[in-house]
Amino acid sequence: MASVEDSDVNEYVFVRTFEEVNEYPFSDSLLLVLCLVGGYLLFVLKIGPAFMKNREPYKLKNTILAYNAFQVALSAYFIYLTGIPMVMAGLFPKRCCEEDPTVRKEMLRCVFIYWLGKITELADTVFFILRKKYNQVSFLHVYHHASVVLGTWVMFKYSVNQTAVYAGFINAVVHVIMYFYYFMAALGPQYQKYLTWKKHITSFQLIQFVTVIIHQIISLAVTRCKHSVLGIFYVIYSCVLFYVLFNNFYKKSYTQKKANGTKTSSAVDKTQAETQNEAKTQ
User: Is 144 an annotated catalytic residue?
Assistant: First the structure.
């Protein structure tokens, strides 16, 4: 693959993939990914509720504690992984880090692990269904999980670049905070009294979306590389859409309630089972 560092201007292509992608499992299985997302939607919207119709909600406290601890550890590990290519290439690399085989290898590994992590997060909705917390299975929640699994696979296959790694890094930081909150809230009332900062998790997510958009734009301005139009549009579109959806959730959950003089429930008043979807992101 020819280097693009000699170009004076950015060159854009619709998609851009690398031979190393084919070394990863599921890299050539779009149908399998579509079946995974379709199966998820079918379960949470039809099969799951029908299965639970005449059943008592399952008690999954220990399972959810273990799950949240796993997500904290996985997000922390991803922060470590993404730190490698970010240090090697820089926050706003002026050279094409995709052209460096060593950096490219680390970058592909990061995005693939990130995608696997998003698959495990589908369990969030499964837990809601099995515990009959149907009010938590909102459009925002379901769309977020389904679109991120599918979109991340497309990014990995056709449009991986250094800006995608940065977006994953920021998302992992937010997820460490978020799943730690859920873990502590699930331990019981004796710990929930310390968790009065629930609404700030959504604020972190809103900041995340703005930060990723700014980083995407600056990277395009300073880097002379073959940027994939598909990747650019996907990242910006996703961040803008999620910003609107999460900001709308924030206003309904906190701003409007405060303006109407109603008291929002604190972490002491809710278990992790009732709050886990209130601040969910990519």
Answer: yes
